[in-house]
Write a structure and sequence with these properties.
single chain; mainly alpha; 3-stranded antiparallel sheet; 39 helices; 52% helix; 6% strand; globular
């Protein structure tokens, strides 16, 4: 009790400094300091004396507090009236880290100093690292600043190309916002769909710029290169395709009732708040302010296109989602208009090729000054200052530039939109739930077997035990493989394929890996509870398999108490979760265990009630009762609402989407599994699939006729009927039919997981207590049940319709070809402008060192000597270290003699770091794509060349 008083002392005010509790707290801190001091200075007798005196004073105060607390308890027992202190609420610190890359505002500080020590040409390859989701915008702001500083005009064709690239980059950025946003609320499938469209955008980028992400395409006065032949037609095809993709997103996401419940009214930002916090972009427009820099500043040629500013008035997460969806549609409109009306003419301003003045004539000779094909690397910035901004996907991206009549900026200050928008996050989280923030040693619990006297007796004891365990293990591995294959089909990607035929051994490999991983124990945690918790979760589910009839003559234990044994045993699992959370000595784990237990209890009651009327008999009799009337005698048709309630409740019991809230806490800290690793973590993983399998088996037995094969429109000969077959053959057929129905039913929970988003904790509990429980109470009486169900009226019907629509969208993708390509088969065909390994032609090089001056990191090493008689440089050695090269292409672009070129080779990995330093011999060899050509290979291997 004294310990609890110490905890309360920490938050007391200045007025309580004279209290006994505060004095005890002060003496304790003093004792700690003296003890630490004496560990280093053991002969400090004055400190030893002070320590003894302080210990005596604290002991007297503790005795006084103990006496005071005894009097308090005696008064409480006698029932005397006393003043009850008010409940005190303390804040809990939740660490939201490590931070997401959206916190890259700290990255800009280093980028600013790099800009002040580079020319604009050298700095352009760096800027795409500011925001690698919207790289074109970082390049645009980098060239717009010196263009306005020097009053440089951009050709109309170059401006149209810039607009097209910017809007494609806006679409790619919004797509990569949409995918993680949906994944944060549990909808995993849209995360894979957005990469499908995003890869098409990157294909267009690669074809035009040579790189998929780090483009280095914008130039002062235009762009680096014109659009290649056929690019415009491909881009128009993408626009038509993307419009159908957005309509799929709207059907799958926008009208989904679970999604609307999660985001509507969450994180509301008012108009004044948005302005005062300096928000911009979709964050600002979703709060009712029609502010778009494309309309306000009229930069590039946006005023020549017909498009509308997307905005909403509510200011919540739903509004911000709708704004971004609308902006992608408007971007398609702008791109289509720009492609159809793109004018002819140059793609760069040719007037800025030459120098303003010559400073080093010995370096800026003929080879360097006049043969250069591009704007001068020594473009000077006039002595003035300005602020330039563009409407980036996240908001206003700005640069404050100060020139000093030098090739380097005197000051380069970046205004990052994402980092500034995030400053309102603490304000938005007030009053919200934690789950909305993203939107905003071996097992020792098994008793040992007693030694038997005879070896044969031991074997026959172990066989009945290991046989069902082996069967259950194979069943779980089959579910894991099946889920991976189904999810891969829905998400149009390649599933497991290398570990065994069709990847069937992948789940076994993953489980074996967990067996050999290290088991970590939390410090100061309860080791026994920590180790026993996962075992209880698994054992309670394994015991449920005792009463499942796999056939008419095959049941492990017919206890004549029906399905209620399963319900009773499954109630033990929450105890294991609580023990795991408490034994971890982690507040996140303990809270996760509490929430998981609350979820399990909330859905056990409707699950029990919905099967009450069909399970008040032995479980074998339930199957026999359904088989009397054939297919139409299944309980699925007798109690369809009960089947739906059972399905929903079983998904919640298995912690499957959309009810995987304890797993959803992995977005923050992993819930009750936070401190687990190795096999203990694997037990939780196995428990969820064991629970899923046993739930599907009970659905088969209770609602789908069990081993009965009364399926209409399918002719079954008499010798296949179980009742007339032999005992062994009949049992085998019964097992096969039961398992076939079970695994066919598993398609429903697996598809549900990859279709629907996740419910929030309050929504999850409301669904269990306010919706499923009232319906399940009247499940035995059809009229009250239908009346209670219809009380929700059109809302329930609308939700069911939109959820069904979402299932149709995801299932339609299962028949499509996968869009993912697995290593090493990716990038078989690259674009003509692909920037891979550099190829060098020694005979063409004039040692002008332009490549050194335009390289962002001065990477090329050029050794030369001056021939005095002919006053010409002679090249001695040329090398490039590809371990540092970022393949920006500046050296190739600015080379006056075209001695450098980019190849398609991109596999430059090696175990030896020095092998990446290519000299002129390595740089001069033919690219691998050319050597692998059949014609070239035939010529090189011809007898004439070989003999020479």
């Amino acid at each position: 009790m004294v310990k609890n008083l110490f905890i309360s002392v920490i938050s007391q005010k200045e007025a309580n400094r004279g209290s006994v509790e505060f004095q005890v707290f002060s003496f304790t801190n003093k004792i700690r300091r003296l003890t630490s001091h004496l560990e280093l200075h053991r002969k400090d007798y004055l400190s030893q004396r002070g320590l003894r005196k302080t210990l005596g004073k604290r002991q007297r105060l503790l005795s006084y507090l103990a006496k005071k607390n005894r009097q308090f308890m005696e008064e409480l027992i006698r029932g005397k009236p006393m003043n009850v202190p008010a409940t005190r609420e303390d804040l809990m610190i939740v660490n939201m880290g490590p931070h997401h890359p959206s916190m890259h505002g700290y990255l800009h500080r280093g980028m600013e100093k790099i800009a002040e020590n580079r020319t604009i040409i050298q700095y352009l390859p760096y800027v795409t690292r500011w925001d690698y989701l919207a790289t074109m915008f970082t390049e645009a702001i980098t060239v717009n600043a010196p263009e306005q500083l020097g009053n440089i005009q951009v050709p109309k064709r170059a401006s149209y190309i810039r607009v097209i690239m910017l809007e494609l980059s806006r679409i790619a950025s919004h797509l990569l916002w949409l995918g993680p946003f949906m994944a944060d609320i549990g909808a995993q499938t849209p995360f894979f769909y957005i990469f499908r469209e995003r890869e098409l955008v990157y294909d267009l980028f690669e074809a035009a710029t040579g790189m998929r992400m780090m483009h280095n395409y914008f130039r002062i006065g235009g762009v680096a290169a014109d659009l290649p032949y056929g690019w415009i037609d491909k881009c128009l095809d993408f626009c038509d395709y993307f419009l159908t993709g957005v309509s799929e997103y709207q059907k799958l996401i926008t009208r989904n009732p679970i999604f609307l419940e999660r985001v509507e009214g969450v994180g509301i930002i008012g108009v004044e708040e948005a302005i005062n916090w300096g928000l911009s972009g979709p964050m600002l427009r979703a709060s009712g302010i029609q502010w778009d820099l494309r309309k306000v500043d009229r930069y590039e040629c946006y005023d020549e296109f017909d498009w509308e500013v997307q905005w909403q008035k509510e200011g919540d997460s739903l509004s911000r989602y709708l704004v971004r969806i609308g902006e992608m549609m408007e971007s398609i409109k702008i791109i289509q208009q720009a492609l159809e009306g793109i004018p002819g003419g140059p793609y760069e301003n040719l007037e800025i090729r030459c120098f303003d003045r010559v400073r080093n004539p010995e370096l800026n000779d003929f080879d360097y000054r006049f043969i250069s094909k591009k704007p001068s690397p020594t473009f000077e910035l006039s002595k003035q200052e300005l602020y330039v901004r563009v409407e980036a996907p996240k908001g206003e991206l700005g640069v404050f530039l100060i020139g000093d009549q030098n090739v380097f900026p005197w000051r380069w200050k970046i205004r990052p939109p994402g980092f500034i928008n995030l400053q309102i996050l603490p304000q938005l989280l007030i009053g919200e739930m934690i789950i909305d923030t993203p939107e905003v040693q071996d097992i020792n619990s098994f008793s040992r077997l007693e030694y038997l006297k005879e070896v044969y007796g031991m074997i026959w004891v172990l066989v009945p035990i290991f046989t069902p365990v082996l069967g259950i293990t194979i069943g779980v591995l089959a579910i894991v493989w099946l889920e991976r294959e189904i999810s891969a089909g829905i998400q149009q990607r390649i599933g497991p394929e290398y570990a065994g035929p069709l990847g069937i051994l992948q789940a076994l490999a993953d489980g074996t890996k967990l067996l050999f991983k290290e088991n970590l124990l939390p410090s100061r945690g309860d080791t026994r509870l920590f180790s026993i918790g996962p075992s209880i979760a698994v054992i309670s589910i394994l015991l449920s398999y005792l009463i499942i009839p796999f056939g008419s003559n095959l049941v492990l234990s017919d206890l004549n108490i029906g399905v209620f044994l399963w319900i009773a045993i499954s109630s033990i699992a929450p105890i294991g979760l609580l023990m795991s959370g408490y034994g971890s000595n982690n507040k996140y784990s303990f809270l996760g265990g509490l929430r998981a237990a609350a979820q399990s209890i909330s859905y056990e009651i409707p699950l029990t009630l919905c099967v009450l009327s069909i399970s008040l008999r032995a479980i074998l009799d339930i199957v026999e009762a359904q088989s009397k009337y054939g297919f139409w005698g299944w309980n699925l048709w007798r109690q369809p609402i009960g089947f739906i309630v059972f399905l929903i409740s079983s998904l919640a019991e298995c912690e499957r989407l959309p009810f995987d809230l304890p797993e959803a806490e992995e977005e923050l800290v992993a819930g009750y599994q936070t401190e687990y690793s190795g096999i203990k973590f694997g037990l939780f993983y196995v428990a969820s699939y064991l629970n899923l399998l046993v739930s599907s088996l009970f659905v088969t037995v209770l609602y789908l006729g069990g081993w009965d094969l009364s399926i209409p429109y399918i002719f079954v000969p008499e010798f296949f009927e179980i009742n007339k077959a032999g005992e062994v053959f009949g049992t085998t057929i019964g097992i096969f039919i039961t398992l076939a129905k079970t695994y066919l039913f598993l398609f429903i929970p697996i598809t549900t997981r990859w279709t629907l988003p996740r419910l929030r904790m309050d929504q999850l509990l409301n669904l269990g207590w306010k919706f499923l429980l009232p319906i399940s109470l009247d499940i035995h009486d059809m009229f009250p049940m239908v009346t209670g169900f219809m009380n929700y009226g059109q809302q329930t019907v609308r939700a069911a319709r939109y959820i069904g629509q979402s299932f149709m969208i995801t299932l339609s993708h299962a028949n499509r070809l996968p869009v993912t390509i697995q290593y090493p088969y990716e990038k078989l065909i690259t674009s003509e402008r692909f920037r891979g390994r550099i190829h060098f032609e020694f005979d063409k090089c004039i040692a002008c060192e332009v490549c050194v001056r335009v390289c962002p990191i001065d990477l090329p090493v050029v050794d030369w000597k001056l021939e005095t008689d002919i006053r010409k440089k002679q090249l001695l050695n040329y090398s490039i270290d590809f371990g540092i090269c970022i393949f920006c292409g500046n050296c190739v672009e600015y080379c006056p003699t075209n001695c450098l070129s980019m190849t398609e080779e991109y596999e430059l990995s090696t175990y030896d770091r020095h092998e990446l330093n290519y000299n002129q011999i390595s740089l001069g060899r033919l690219p691998m794509s050319v050597i692998d050509d059949y014609t070239i290979r035939t010529i090189l291997n011809s007898p004439q060349i070989t003999s020479e």
